[in-house]
Design goal:
Blueprint lengths: L27 H4 L2 E2 L14 E6 L4 E15 L2 E2 L1 E15 L6 H7 L3 E8 L5 E10 L5 E4 L2 E2 L21 E5 L2 E7 L5 E5 L7
Length: 198
């Protein structure tokens, strides 16, 4: 990401966002994709051992993850299998309104967890379930469909991946893959199609 700015500019009652707050950050959408373990290791607790430095154009905050447990899930359509469950803590840095009750509530160590499921034919994980526990009620958001659909980019779409020279063929579980590093350093791997029979 080269530049991220808020339009309109943030109001004066927000904690100021400094230039250093805009360095080494990810946007909220990119933050939802997690690199999985190396080939052959499957889901491991290491997927949770990270801090996500997020800037959404208005607010800069950290989401600190830690391993909680392994679990199993079943979508109505698509994925059924193991997930890695991470605890999540929210730490506001800048751009937020310090006197807003929700900011205070979330930053006081509320029990938040996220379950990450593997995306088929990649080395990525994505959220399957989000749970926020409180004394009044629990909030749970869960995927009813969790499918991978590979579709070619429309003609004329500029590539958003590294140059082809950065693509490295690999072999995992007897299957050839091509891996590329996309924005924010995430590596995406796809199976190499087998040649059509002659």
């Amino acid at each position: 990401m080269k530049e991220l700015a808020a339009t309109p500019p943030p109001s004066s009652d927000r904690v100021p966002v400094t230039n250093s707050n805009r360095q080494r950050i990810v946007d909220p959408l990119t933050a939802l994709l997690f690199s999985a373990a190396t080939a052959g290791e499957g889901l491991t607790q290491e997927a949770c051992l990270r801090t996500l430095p997020i800037f959404d154009g208005h607010q800069r905050y950290d989401l600190k993850l830690a391993f909680k447990r392994m679990d199993k899930v079943t979508a109505e359509k698509g994925y059924a299998g193991p997930v890695v469950v991470c605890s999540v803590s929210y730490e506001p840095i800048s751009g937020h309104r310090a006197n807003i009750p929700l900011v205070k509530y979330l930053s006081e160590g509320r029990e938040i967890e996220i379950a990450l499921a593997p995306i088929t034919d990649t080395r990525l994980l994505a959220p399957f379930r989000l749970l926020v526990v409180s004394t009044l009620a629990n909030l749970m958001i869960e995927a009813s469909r969790f499918e991978t659909i590979m579709a070619p980019a429309p003609a004329g779409t500029p590539p958003n991946v590294a140059h082809s020279s950065d693509i490295s063929p690999t072999r995992r579980d007897g299957v050839d893959e091509r891996c590329v590093e996309v924005r924010s350093g995430v590596v995406v791997c796809q199976k190499v199609p087998e040649p059509a029979p002659k």
